[in-house]
Amino acid sequence: MGGENHFDNKTAYAKQEEVYFDDGRETELIRGILGSSDCEKMRGSPRKVLAAIDAFGRQKYLMNIGQEKGAIVTKLIATHKPKVMVRIPFTPCAVPGVVSCLPAFAVSSSNFMISISINAKKTRQPVVQVELGGYVGYSAILFADAVRAAGGKHFYCLEHNPEFFSIVRMLCELAGLGDFVTVIYGDSAECLRQLKSQGLFTQIDLLFLDHYKPLYLRDLKLCEELGFINLGTTLVADNVIKPGNPPYLAYVRATPEEKKKMAASADESRSADGGGSAENETSVEEDPKGNPSLIYESSLVESFEPTGIPDGVEISRCVGLLSDDMS
């Protein structure tokens, strides 16, 4: 599936440098926005905050999803429209690092809520919208605004960098989304396991992957093992062309039979590498096996990075489960 093959160069971000993040530019961004004479005009306006982030990105590169690919996801959110949304209290200390990374903020229980949507016309199974990787909050603001416009009640994301975590919260607050967006600090796998242990939801409705690229497949498999991926779950993976993510694409595009062969081959490789040692046993435990019986329909939507360089997002929908007697 292809996207629009046109990019407006007037909106292009600055060229991506060799060192392009976590070098002080994110602090420069938040200081520039909060110190701007237009800051109060931005308050309560996701559109204006996004415009300010884009304006900075045109001067100095930011690794945001950008307008082109962002529109693909917001259209997907608009068509989803969950029927019933239920807000369940989320205890900040239940997820590692949440409270300790909030010295500059008043921790209010109303700001830590998990969104669960129940599709009344289908199975009434609780479903959740999750974003892995928040960076400076561009996608959180863009998508949360879309979720709210579609009738949703809440949106939250996971971010492992404490500085980025704080910036996301500040910009979401400025955009008027402070009570709508929950940002959870910590390693994605650790947080997902903790959320599972809390029993806050049983299924993820929309999973957006835009964090450390080698972790896409690990975290998807972990979500499968935890039972978060079920019939109706949609996965959206960014940057599958630039820089690319062949292991992830191979997995979501494979049949259950092919995925089982991949798993068997990986097990054989571990055994050949001496998987019986204590060190290797730990490594195996940290590498989820997933649920190869899940069936995905997956397609690439071609688009552009905010710099104008071609990229795309992979949209995968879970459409079934291969039963044991058919495997």
Description:
The protein is α/β, with parallel strands linked by helices. Helix content is 39%, strand content 19%. Strands 1, 2, 3, 4, 5, 6, 7, 8 and 9 form a 9-stranded mixed sheet that branches. β2 and β3 form a beta hairpin. α7 (188-198) runs parallel beside α8. The longest helix has 17 residues, at 256-272.
Write a compact overview of the structure shown.
The chain is of the alpha/beta class and 327 residues long. It is 39% helix and 19% strand.
Helix count?
12
The helix/strand class is alpha/beta
Strand content: 15-25%
How many β strands by DSSP?
Answer: 9
Q: How much is the average pLDDT? A: 81
Distance between the termini: 29 Å
Question: What pattern of helices and strands is seen along the backbone?
Answer: HHHHEEEHEHEHEHEHHHHEE
Gyration radius over CA: 20 Å
Approximately how much helix is present in the residues? 25-40%
| Sheet having the most strands | 9 strands, mixed
Dominant shape: globular
> Runs with pLDDT <50, length 5+?
82-127, 276-285
InterPro entries: SAM-dependent_MTases_sf (IPR029063), SAM_O-MeTrfase (IPR002935)
Pfam families: Methyltransf_24
GO biological process, one term: methylation
Organism: Claviceps pazoutovae
Strand and helix layout:
Layout lengths: L24 H10 L4 H4 L3 H14 L6 H15 L3 E6 L23 E6 L7 E7 L5 H12 L5 E5 L2 H13 L6 E5 L2 H11 L5 E6 L5 H11 L8 E4 L2 H5 L1 H7 L3 H17 L5 H8 L8 E11 L5 E12 L6
Helix pairs in contact: 3-5, 4-5, 7-8
InterPro entries: SAM-dependent_MTases_sf, SAM_O-MeTrfase
Family: Belongs to the class I-like SAM-binding methyltransferase superfamily. Cation-dependent O-methyltransferase family.
GO molecular function: O-methyltransferase activity
